[in-house]
What we know:
Blueprint: E1 2-7, E2 13-19, E3 27-34, H1 40-54, E4 64-70, H2 74-91, E5 95-99, H3 100-108, E6 120-127, E7 132-138, E8 144-152, H4 159-164, E9 166-170, H5 174-181, E10 187-189, H6 198-210
Parallel strand pairs: 1-4, 4-5, 6-9, 9-10
Antiparallel strand pairs: 1-2, 2-3, 6-7, 7-8
Helix pairs in contact: 1-2, 3-6
Catalytic activity: L-threonylcarbamoyladenylate + adenosine(37) in tRNA = N(6)-L-threonylcarbamoyladenosine(37) in tRNA + AMP + H(+)
GO molecular function, one term: metal ion binding
Keywords: Acyltransferase, Iron, Metal-binding, Transferase, tRNA processing
Amino acid sequence: MLLLSIDTSTASCSVAVHGGDGPDAGTLLGCYELFTERTSAAMLTTLIGDVVRHTGHELAQLDAIAVSKGPGSYTGLRIGVSTAKGLCFALDKPLLAINTLQAMTEQVRPYATLFADQPILFCPMIDARRMEVYCTFYDTTGREVRPTAAEIITPDSFADLLASSRVLFFGDGAAKCQPALGHHANAVFLDQLIIPSARTVGQLATQAFASGQFEDPATFEPFYLKEFMTTQPRRATA
């Protein structure tokens, strides 16, 4: 299996190639990541070509294309999904789509060992402006215990979950929520900034590939969660 993964769900941009067979399936062969603003549209195709070539392969050798489907930046998701669908059509390859928050959680799963004395939930958060975040909750088995949603955070948010479990909050939306949620004894905020990455998109896509969880490239759309909002330009005054 040879799998290309793409993540453009936030301001960063990353691509990865995973490969291998049998017990080695899903081995990370290469990953390129850029963390500068507005890089997706300008650099994505260049990164894809480079990572595939530098792992010793050609695009035609890929078995599938995986993409981070959202939630996240409206523009970023459109770029990533459009690029992935274009590759699928051009190369006649299947499409895999992974929840961005689920892929983020894979990055912090090792932290569960620090809380072995009590139940723990993972809460990835992506900044959705003001006091709103895209978030969900996963347990240590990877089961989603609350649907992915756009949440406006208040001091009472998630009180039911925080009453019974330690919750590890992380992602670029977590820092702004700490003043509102930090009073809960079970709220833990990760100091390390966790950014969505094609590395873990590819890990989950390897499992999806094995179980045949493919998307239809002709009809698939990003998981936006809410409509794209624009502001009306102000009329010039004399």
